[in-house]
Amino acid sequence: MKKLGFVVPWYGENIPGGAEMLLRGLTSHMAASGVELEILTTCVKQFTSDWNENYHKEGVTTEGGITIRRFKVRKRDSAAFDRVNAMLIKGRKPSREDQEVFVREMVNSTDLYDYMSEHKDEYSWFLYTPYMFGTTINGIRVAPEKSVLIPCFHDEAYAYMDVFTEEYKKIKGMVFNAVPEEELALRIYDLTNVKHKTIGVGLDTKISSDPQRFREKFNIHDPFILYAGRKDEGKNVHTLVKFFAEFKKRNSTNLKLVLIGGGQMDFPEEFIKSGDIIDLGFVDIQDKYDANSAALLLCQPSKNESFSLVIMESWLGGRPVMVHEDCEVTKHFVVDANGGFYFKTYYEFEGQVNYLMNNPDVASKMGANGCEYVKARFDWDIIVKNYMDFLNSCE
Amino acid sequence: MNNDINVEQIMSDIRENISKTGRDKEPLSFIDKEAALDAKPNDNSIDNAVDYISYNYEVKPYDILRGNKIAVFFKRVIRKLTSFLIMPIVAQQNTLNYYYYRVSEAVLSAKKDNEELIKRADLLEKRIAAIESKLGDKKD
């Protein structure tokens, strides 16, 4: 196999985002296992930057042992793009003409596409992520026969655009992070001639944790529900706080809610004063692993996850998880692994928390199920092997 | 993997237990939108709830005082002494309840209109299907 070219709109060590994290993890572990690869990207810094600004210098650099080729972006008509994007945000499907405006006026680099066209024979495959960016669709238009997409689809207006459905049926392969994502793609896209597989996202499964160390370090000796992640409305954490407050009013228990991660949120004052809600903010990664193993359960109330590393980490800590019923992906994982519960109403939440408190053996078995599930599927060595097997099968 | 655990079965048992013990009938201190969404439009409980509100939206601050003569006397004194505090709250609550009642009547009325429209739409769809079928026969 010749080298792989990962085509992405931006690249950097510390830029946030699920697809960005997936790419960094995948490329670094592939490179470590001896796969020859390069990142082909633009000079834009990250998603939240001005897509007309060339933040990085164009040219070739080596970052973390990986070759990065950066190309200058083409100046774009932001107003035209914003007009179509506003339609999509409202869930409306734009006209075909406007869809072309969308893919033409978002982040794009003519120099990148020219390079791909001239050098495509040097690469076995071009891999693109995520699905909606100019670098993805216009890169695919250069060499669909060498294209494999890691789309990171969500059920949103963008995914239904004809420009994508027509272009992505011509590629060679598509890799998904979770089964519900693959099912969504099969509903929207014609994948008759596209090889496709759910592989998932890798994580470091060789971790150790010590629940007692967490309890002593943070002086938390009562059972607790853990929330790990950003504290904002989009993650539906306010529902968890509301449900927990109600749980405390209706149940005589020493249960606590411990939150780790960034973001700001207003908690009911009486629960902060009583120490029933404890917000630890950012903690060291080892503290996070220890917290996972010390918790009664981890609750992931988000309705919009495409993978959810935090539930995998909780399972690696041997503890069960509770997720929201409206999130197809996390719900699928919980049922598939037999590793926890999903809830929708307060009453379900209350019943499930009480069940896990009163049945510690079952709770531990659920955590063990989850741990086994993660180790069998999402260890980086397995993910890299599955990706390489998939690419070989596309030839 | 422990195959003796079936999370769907456990969740189903938990739901059954909630229903059996009546925990889900105990009101919460907030509106659980998710649970509210589960209320079906054709659920008779909405009609019953509006019925209940229509009879009970007015809070009655006075009730018959019970006990022996001395107890009743003291209760009456306490009631008179606190009336300046209680009565404005009751009046405010009654006004609020009245508007809640008006809204719930409007919702019920809209629900009935909707049911009527669904029936008419069904009828029209059947008539269209019959006409299409006749037209198809003529073409053949």
Number of helices of chain B: 4
**Mean pLDDT rating of chain B:** 83
Radius of gyration of chain A: 22 Å
Describe the main β-sheet of chain B briefly: none
Let me know the CATH homologous superfamily of the largest domain in chain A. Answer: Glycogen Phosphorylase B
Q: Give the integer mean of the pLDDT values of chain A.
A: 94
Strand line-up in the sheet with most strands of chain A: 3-4-2-1-5-6-7-8
Q: How much strand content do the residues of chain A show?
A: 15-25%
Beta-strand percentage of chain B?
Answer: under 5%
Listing every helix as H and every strand as E from the N terminus to the C terminus, the arrangement of chain A reads EHEEEHHHEHEHEHEHEHEHEHEHEHEHHH
- Large-scale geometry of chain A: globular
Based on CA atoms alone, the radius of gyration of chain B comes out at 27 Å
The number of helical runs of chain A is: 16
- Please report the distance between the alpha carbons of the first and last residues of chain A: 10 Å
Order of helices and strands of chain B: HHHH
Task: List the SSEs and their pairings.
The complex is a heterodimer of chains A (395) and B (140).
Chain A: E1 3-7, H1 18-32, E2 37-42, E3 59-63, E4 66-71, H2 78-89, H3 96-104, H4 110-119, E5 123-128, H5 134-142, E6 147-149, H6 162-167, E7 173-176, H7 179-188, E8 195-198, H8 211-218, E9 224-228, H9 237-250, E10 256-260, H10 269-274, E11 277-281, H11 285-294, E12 297-300, H12 309-316, E13 321-324, H13 328-337, E14 340-343, H14 346-358, H15 360-377, H16 380-394
Parallel strand pairs in A: 1-2, 1-5, 2-4, 5-6, 6-7, 7-8, 9-10, 9-12, 10-11, 12-13, 13-14
Antiparallel strand pairs in A: 3-4
Helix pairs in contact in A: 1-16, 2-3, 4-5, 8-11, 12-15
Chain B: H1 7-21, H2 33-37, H3 44-56, H4 69-139
